[in-house]
Amino acid sequence: MADPTRRSFLATAALASSAPTGIARRAAAASTTPGTGRAKRMLILGGTRFLGPQIVLAAEALGYEVTLFNRGKSDAERFARLEQRIGDRDTGDLRSLERGEWDVVVDTSGYAPSHVAATAALLRDRVASYVFVSTISVYADQSGPVVGEDTPVATVPDEVAEQATTIRAASRHYGAMKARCEQAAEAAMPGRVAILRPGLIVGPEDSSDRFTYWPVRIARGGEVLAPGDPEQEVQFVDVRDLGVFCAKIAHAREHGVWNTVGFPFRLSMPELLTGCKVALNADCSFTWVSQSFLQEQRVRPYVQMPLWLPAAQRGHIDNRRAIASGLSFRSVADTIRDTERWYAAEAPAREGKPRAGIPPEREKELLEAWRAAGR
How much is the pTM? Predict the structure, then answer.
């Protein structure tokens, strides 16, 4: 299969920010709470890893005083300038949240429905709105041609939800539990909840490597094994863009549900991988293998072959509402370059081994098997 042209990639990757919307205009309004003269206040549940720091920076740019609530174990010094509340949702320790008032709470660490129900109930009389970071995994079926915010969500029996009292337990039914978390927030604060449903969040500091694998592998050069369906769409969002949008929604006190994924155009897997080659000026070539080959070789979708899914499991996530509300996207090329640079600096501490993707030895075996089959 021929690679997409450089012109094709650059035409789609060089994105301009969306024009100001109602949300964007309201988010640029005065940074004080009406009638009080005090700065606006935001409470972030979590806040020290990946997405949380980007929300902090975006909120501060809007003039917020930010308070963090977490266990104090992850990168505790990163935001030493901020007010810190220490607790643990897994153990039910919310004592540090029993005092204080905020304009908005942003929940980046809600996985168990009982955790969200407890924090929302505790805070509902002392915050104006609740922003919950959910996931597109809440959808029971993502394989439809268009998956909108009204697509049915996954469910679990009440007894299963009630027994999921820790993050680890809730992760066994990740999508359904996130859906229950959304419902718990809305039940505690009806009409005051904003729900963001991202898919794969990517960029610097993404420890999952589910996107990072591709810039890193392509930068290494040589023959690259790639999934060869030219029609496969890929959707993801740069963590920095999601952080800005989260702060905008919080500041504007908008409520509802948004699919926060990219892009304002369809981006295919071949375009993305060729884009990595162009953006990184990499000396590599692609060997495009078929879906049937990957399945015969038991290559695990999304884990061993990041961003790839069999055709029957793919769907387009409708992001038009988020774009209309101010979600904008930096150039995909910038995300590629920034991610590869971050990983290059991080790799020595991690022995240079991505946590997702195909190890070099396995990739070599697969390439040899593809040629041996005469495909």
Answer: 0.90
